[in-house]
Specification:
alpha+beta; Rossmann fold; Alpha-Beta Plaits; 8-stranded antiparallel β-sheet; 7-stranded mixed β-sheet; 14 helices; 33 strands; 27% strand; binds guanosine-5',3'-tetraphosphate
Length: 550
């Protein structure tokens, strides 16, 4: 790689303490890339992750990533669901370093049942790699995840995978991305051959041939006309590449500014299984993906290079290690330097949270970090003080916005046979709700708690965990509702009228905000017509102002 991958902060160094701290933060932030891989199941996300980790020097850990087959290690009882169904329930963070760049790969569960977790993870990245199966093109889940990235202006690098197999026509694929996603494509590589005759790619930005043949690095060329090309690949492939490369000129040139805005994607080609194209993709990530970006908070915008620490919790996971029954909050650092032993301010409560042993994650391993920087994700063990969406800072009382909750579509009552475990059930449900496993609602008429999930599989996870971790066997009872909305309004009298109108269909969520349940779209529309003073919200940002139920 002969491209400079890091933009070092420029300007005179200052000897003032703050200036020096800011420079160190800016320097460390500039070499970090926090990203996720988005893909439809089976497109090759797991294989690509393994190969990225291999490239990044985390060799001993690659192979543990795979969530399928018998290589999977049992971590706790409820993980059996993962094993049985061959899907990854838990989101993990993997850190690796290459050529001075620190990559933080935030793994998003691929199964659509867990989309809420995925959405939250996407709030913590600065870029995403979209993996597309060359034979299938854009699939349902790819599109869904892409839409979330678009909502958050997350720049996307496209990796067209499985080029070693029969694929769709390349132009057809590129046009499909452009049309279905309304995103301009800029191929930065061009495949040489396809299917069984796929031998490598041609770098359109810095003319060079990357060949699959083992051991050979890229061969620099002066351009497609370079006669060296004919000595490197068969004549028909050289001809095809020259034709294709020329036609590729019809696509717009790659424009880094448009990529950062999220309106253009650079396209790479390769085969994760054959470990081809991965180095080129990583080089692209290092070169084009943004270092930690500015983040909007309620009071102001936070810049990564600021010396004081800020960050937010986007995920909570309990019992990651059966030997330590702990809960780990995943903190995305947005600015400043985190040092072991710091005490951080939790904006929601004003309380001090000690960070005595921040954890770094390497696949399924963890290690205590001495320090961490913007773009990093650290785990903070705690006993339930930290919640999803919490902002932590050194001093300042600010709140990052944007960790969403989505209105669940499946609503069930949790029932127990043994009334003696009622209190245990409440505690368990509260803890699991804090972790984001389910959403929890307490009906205002005093009937048993209602849980809400986005996908049915979450219900299995909940039942399994209630039994395995809390010793509470439970069952679900259907409810008449298929919809739930948060109810917001400044008009207290209208809220009161609404509550009285449907006393058995209102509840409070985990944070005490008012919600309403509906049995159909028609009923919800009706409520909106009858109560024009109220807003019925499908998405709740963690800290947006909500109407209290009580
Ligand atoms: P996912 O995480 O996105 O669900 O996909 P995963 O990596 O598990 O890949 C899905 C299947 O596609 C796997 O085969 C994998 O080996 C295969 N695959 C991934 N990348 C490539 C590629 O570049 N070329 C080819 N030809 N195949 C690829 P499987 O048979 O379903 O699983 P397994 O038995 O290999 O684990």
């Amino acid at each position: 790689m002969d491209q400079p991958v890091l933009s070092r902060p420029s300007g005179p160094e200052t000897h003032a303490a703050t200036g020096a701290a800011e420079t160190a933060v800016a320097r460390e932030a500039a070499r970090r890339r926090a990203f996720a891989i988005i893909a439809h199941p089976d497109a090759g996300k797991t294989t690509l992750t393994e190969k990225l980790l291999l490239r990044g020097g985390a060799i001993q850990l690659a192979g543990q990533v795979r969530a399928k087959g018998d290589r999977r290690r049992t971590r706790s009882d409820w993980m059996k669901i993962e094993q049985d169904r061959g899907i990854s329930v838990a989101t993990s963070v993997m850190t690796f370093e290459r050529d001075g760049v620190v990559f933080n790969l935030l793994d998003t569960p691929g199964h659509e049942d867990f989309s809420e977790d995925t959405y939250r993870t996407l709030t913590a990245v600065d870029a995403a790699v979209m993996v597309i199966d060359a034979a299938k093109g854009i699939e349902a889940q790819t599109r869904k995840l892409f839409e979330v990235c678009r909502l958050r202006d997350i720049p996307i690098i496209t990796f067209i995978n499985k080029m070693d197999r029969e694929s769709k026509d390349i132009f057809e694929l590129l046009d499909e991305i452009e049309k279905t996603l309304a995103l301009d494509v800029a191929p930065v590589a061009w495949p040489v051959g396809a299917g069984r005759s796929f031998v490598g790619t041609y770098d359109l930005l810095d003319p060079a041939l990357h060949l699959m043949a083992e051991g050979s690095g890229p061969v620099r060329l002066s351009g497609l006309g370079d006669p060296k090309l004919d000595t490197l690949v068969k004549p028909d492939l050289a001809r095809e590449l020259r034709d294709g490369g020329e036609l590729a000129g019809a696509y717009p040139d790659f424009d880094p500014a448009r990529f950062l805005e999220g309106t253009m994607t650079p396209v790479y080609f390769g085969s994760a299984l054959r470990d081809f194209g991965i180095g080129h993709l990583l080089e692209g990530l290092a070169r084009f993906a943004p270092p930690p970006r500015d983040r909007a908070a309620d009071s102001r915008t936070v810049t990564a290079s600021e010396p004081e620490l800020t960050g937010f919790v986007f995920k909570i996971q309990a019992n990651m290690d059966p030997n330590h029954r702990d809960r780990v909050a995943f903190l995305r650092i947005c600015s400043g330097r985190l040092q072991k032993g710091m005490r951080l301010r939790q904006t929601r409560t004003g309380k001090q949270v000690p960070v005595n042993a921040p954890l770094f994650f390497f696949a399924q391993d963890r290690q205590v970090a001495e320090e961490a920087w913007p773009g990093d994700v650290v785990g903070i063990a705690n006993h339930g003080i930290l919640r999803i969406g919490d902002t932590l800072t050194e001093k300042e009382a600010l709140n990052f916005s944007g960790v969403p909750s989505f209105a669940p579509e499946i609503l069930r009552r949790v029932m127990i046979e043994d009334a003696m475990v009622g209190k245990k059930l409440r505690t368990a449900l509260e803890q699991l709700a804090e972790e984001g496993v389910v959403q929890l609602f307490r009906p205002l008429d005093g009937t048993p708690p209602v849980v809400g999930v986005v996908g049915a599989l979450q219900l299995d996870v909940l039942a399994e965990r209630l039994k395995a971790e809390y010793g509470v066997p439970s069952r679900y009872e259907n409810t008449p509702w298929s919809l739930m909305r948060w109810v917001a309004s400044e008009d207290a009298a209208a809220l009161e009228r609404f509550r009285r109108a449907i006393p058995h269909d209102v509840a409070e969520d985990h944070d005490g905000a008012l919600v309403a349940f509906f049995s159909s779209d028609w009923r919800r529309n009706r409520a909106a017509e009858d109560f024009p003073e109220l807003r019925f919200l499908e998405v709740r940002e963690q800290h947006s102002l909500m109407t209290k139920a009580g």
